[in-house]
Specification:
The structure is a single chain. It contains 7 helices and 12 strands. 24% of the residues lie in helices and 32% in strands. It is α+β, with helices and mostly antiparallel strands and 265 residues long. It has one domain: Endonuclease/exonuclease/phosphatase (Deoxyribonuclease I, Chain A, 4-Layer Sandwich), CATH 3.60.10. The strands form 2 sheets. A 6-stranded mixed β-sheet has the order 3-4-2-1-12-11. Strands 5-6-7-8-10-9 form a 6-stranded mixed β-sheet.
């Protein structure tokens, strides 16, 4: 039987850090049906410590903006124009949120979001678009977990290889300059089926979780995953497990969620 001192020591041991990265596909299933509520229920079931969401979609532009235009003077209170799928999930599940819109148009908006049940500080959102045809961003936040400040970066990279390589180098430069030490998780939709990111970030001391654990890490397409487009890189966090997504998630987005169990070193 364990004595009280053992129980106390075990109770104060930091638990593992669960991280989830998921491209929400603008809230729609692979067949184009809306899946907001089902996505929210799945997020709630995971009890993760950090969520890295891409293509979190806004339902619609608030009516005052649509009717009056951006340049028109407003006399009535304006609805929150940043309200989106990610803010709905955060409000419903009482999570902290950092939001980084990438596309902002009268008809539609979407971007990256970082959600966490732990204290979360937004550190910035940077435009890393490599060309004018794809708006991409890097969202950075810091979470306080088990007495540690963990840097969290959410990225959505370009479809073309040349653009992705530029964006990866920009992100690596930001990390070396702004977050050179301490626990760090970089996750998102890298569109990197060629795995260029693994050696590139490896040179900066970051390790890709699925690769390090010998897992395939395939997340796309969700119905029959063949490509490892989504990535999760860590530093100062020991990968413990790459968690296989549940079957139901194949019906919720065109990407499967990338889920991992990490341990702060």
């Amino acid at each position: 039987m364990r004595n009280p001192e053992q129980l106390i020591r075990e109770s104060v041991q930091p638990k593992d850090f669960i991280a989830v990265s998921w491209n929400l596909h603008k809230g729609r299933t692979p067949l184009g049906f809306q899946a907001w509520q089902a996505m929210q229920r799945w997020v709630q079931s995971t009890h993760a410590d950090a969520y890295f969401l891409q293509e979190a979609m806004a339902r619609r532009m608030p009516s005052p903006v649509l009717s009056r235009g951006f340049g028109a003077p407003l006399h009535d209170p304006l609805d929150d124009v940043w309200h989106c799928q990610a803010t709905e999930i955060a409000e419903s599940l009482e999570l902290q949120i950092a939001l980084g819109p990438n596309v902002f148009k009268p008809s539609w908006r979407h971007g990256n979001a970082i959600l966490s049940p732990h204290p979360l500080d937004l550190s910035g959102r940077w435009d890393i678009s490599a060309h004018r045809f794809e708006k991409r961003g890097l969202l950075v936040a810091r979470a306080t977990f088990a007495g540690h400040s963990v840097t969290l970066l959410c990225a959505h990279l370009a479809l073309t290889r040349a653009a992705r390589l530029r964006q990866m180098n920009w992100i690596a430069h930001w990390i070396s300059k702004e977050a050179p030490q301490g626990p760090l998780v970089l996750a998102g939709d890298f569109n990197d089926w060629r795995n260029d990111s693994v050696p590139l970030f490896g040179e900066h001391g970051l390790y890709e979780v699925a690769t390090l654990l010998g897992e395939s890490g395939r997340t796309f397409p969700a119905f029959s995953p063949a490509l490892a487009l989504d990535k999760m890189f860590v530093r100062g966090m020991q990968p413990v497990e790459w968690i296989q997504p549940t079957q139901e998630t194949a019906w919720l987005s065109d990407h499967l969620p990338y889920m991992a169990r990490l341990r702060v070193e």
